Amino acid sequence: METKWLEDFVSLAETRSFSRSAQLRHVTQPAFSRRIQALEAWAGTDLVDRSSYPTRLTTAGKTLYDQSLEVLQALQNTRAMLRAHSTSSQDMIEFAVPHTLAFTFFPAWVSSLRTKFGPFKSRLIALNVHDALMRLVEGSCDLLITYHHDSQPFQIDADRYEMVSLGKEVLSPYSKPDASGQPLHCLPGKPGQPLPYLGYAPGAYLGRVTELILKQSGTPIHLERVYETDMAEGLKAMALEGQGVAFLPHSAVKKDLRARRLVSAAPPGSEDLQMVMDVRVYREKPTAKDAAKGTAQALWDYLLAQAGAHPDGMLV
Question: Is the pTM of this model over 0.90?
Fold first, then answer.
């Protein structure tokens, strides 16, 4: 039995809605339902009366709800005590960052911060987007850094979390150049000769943004998926080998563009084949009972001030 099942169950008991709880828990509704079913299998009895709407708990469900609140609160208190014992933990700012940003954006950003803000200890937790978001929701990191696009919003409670925009990131198609410096694979391709396409794995955040670019293109795009992975760095490695077209964040390729190891795979003037995203940092709003770490709070104040001074973004 996993503690997140209890957290799911508490959410369901309080919202009385599978769809609403799935949003609050940042999972799809089918995945959320499977986790409730897994908890029922562990308990050996039905916890939810599915014949009613709004959802009601069974007698067993009401008993488990009361116990779950006590268990989760006890675990939260224990973690707080354990963290209080570690002075190094108090000085360490923990960042949850999706893999792509962990490789492309984060190293240069932290280096710049240490120059401008001052030295600080940091711990990077690199995950997929969903798990990075859950780190924030579960209180297992100080800050979450992630992409944002209005077409793919996160269901984050604005009353509980706050955000600072760090700047803009552009997602565009790239290819290895040929001997004359032109792209080996140049969009849009032809109906009988689709271009080899290096795509993101199903469910990847950048994959969903890429699909939106292709869908909104004013020119029909002809691609044949030949490779996929959930990390932009993996796609870039294949693009550098000349294996196809990959849609990549600019921060991932800027050095390769300067060195002419990669070039744009979009025809001149085709601005509809790119998408501008936000890079954002989120944190849970501190309370009087659970104040933010001193260094983390100072860094947040600095980021807020910088965002006010640079409304167009602070990306390094």
Answer: no
